[in-house]
Amino acid sequence: MKTEQIQKKNAGRKSFSTAVILIAVVLALFFFYTEHYYHADRTAKMALRSDDHAAVTSSQTGILFDGPGTEALLIFYPGGKIEEKAYAPLLRQLAENGMDVFLVRMPFRLAVFGANKANEVLEETADYEKICLGGHSLGGAMAANYAAEHAEELDGLVLLAAYATKPLPDDLAVLSVYGSEDGVLNRENYEKDRANLPDDAQELVIEGGNHAQFGSYGQQEGDGEAAILPEMQWDRTAEAILEFFELK
Fold this sequence. Notes:
Layout: H1 2-34, H2 42-46, E1 55-58, E2 62-66, E3 72-77, H3 88-96, E4 99-104, H4 117-124, E5 130-136, H5 138-150, E6 156-160, E7 174-179, H6 187-192, E8 202-206, H7 230-244
Parallel strand pairs: 3-4, 3-5, 5-6, 6-7, 7-8
Antiparallel strand pairs: 1-2, 2-4
Helix pairs in contact: 3-7
């Protein structure tokens, strides 16, 4: 009887030890995966400086690009495994031209762990007449998920190289933008999930643009080669967003 009890205890210890080892391995792989990400380049870091055109302030939640406009705010979710600062050139351009932007910091640089971060931003920021949500790639998909559940709190949604996996209400203004040379965006899923967008959703295809040039972090694995400069892609994207929300 004692032998059986000892054997059971030993078996239990071995199972526990195996479980601990497996958990440790999974955690190690997860942290290895998340710590290999795309870094903001010098151009992006330069765009984080405050000047007479836009004030840039940082908090635990993210980075606020505060320009001369007081009417509209865009809450922006960055793409997966991309340093949020990489979007500074595009977002600064929006702020300088009338649309303030709050760039959200995501846990582990993955928006799947912070899909509801917009709630924190709304608690931190001043009142605006228009509150819009947007994001790039994975960030755009998570922004769309949030919009599907909180449409009454938003005046619009901007998808950059992203698609909505949940149905969005018909009265939500949606703008979808992607580059013609994008090699990362899953076009099959993009076309399939068009059905989740409102009937009057607008789409812009930037000729010569690719996936990575919505930010400023260099070439992304699997992406197509852009036929235009990053500055041109930022210009066209910012112009489309400002026009869509009638800020230009």
